[in-house]
C-alpha cells in the first residue's frame, strides 16, 4: 500500500504478522490451540473514511471471518491467513 501516503510500513507489518501467526501455530499445535490471521477486507470505519479509499464493507461483514476462525473445530486449519473466500497466499 505504498500508494497511500504515510503507509510505507503497512505491507511489511502485515508480512511480519503472518510470519508470527505461523510461528505461534507451530508452537501451540501440541496444546491444541489453532492460530490464524484474518483479513477483514476494507471496512467503512472512522479510521478508513478519511483516506478516501472506496471501502463500502460494513464492520460486521469484516468481523465475520474473525468469528469463523474463532469458532473452528479442533481439526481446523492453523497457521493460515484467511479472508471470506478461504486461505490466502502471502
TrEMBL record:
SUPFAM superfamilies in the cross-refs: NAD(P)-binding Rossmann-fold domains
Pfam families tied to this protein: adh_short
Domain of life: Bacteria
Gene3D superfamilies: NAD(P)-binding Rossmann-like Domain
UniProt xrefs under InterPro entries: NAD(P)-bd_dom_sf, SDR_fam
UniProt-recorded name of the protein: Short chain dehydrogenase
Species of the source: Planotetraspora phitsanulokensis
Amino acid at each position: 500500500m505504498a500508494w497511500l501516503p504515510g503507509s510505507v510500513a503497512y505491507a511489511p507489518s502485515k508480512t511480519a504478522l503472518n510470519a508470527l501467526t505461523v510461528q505461534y501455530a507451530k508452537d501451540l499445535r501440541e496444546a491444541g490451540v489453532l492460530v490464524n490471521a484474518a483479513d477483514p477486507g476494507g471496512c467503512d470505519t472512522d479510521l478508513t473514511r478519511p483516506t478516501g479509499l472506496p471501502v463500502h464493507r460494513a464492520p460486521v461483514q469484516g468481523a465475520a471471518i474473525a468469528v469463523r476462525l474463532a469458532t473452528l473445530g479442533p481439526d481446523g486449519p492453523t497457521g493460515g491467513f484467511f479472508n471470506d473466500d478461504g486461505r490466502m497466499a502471502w
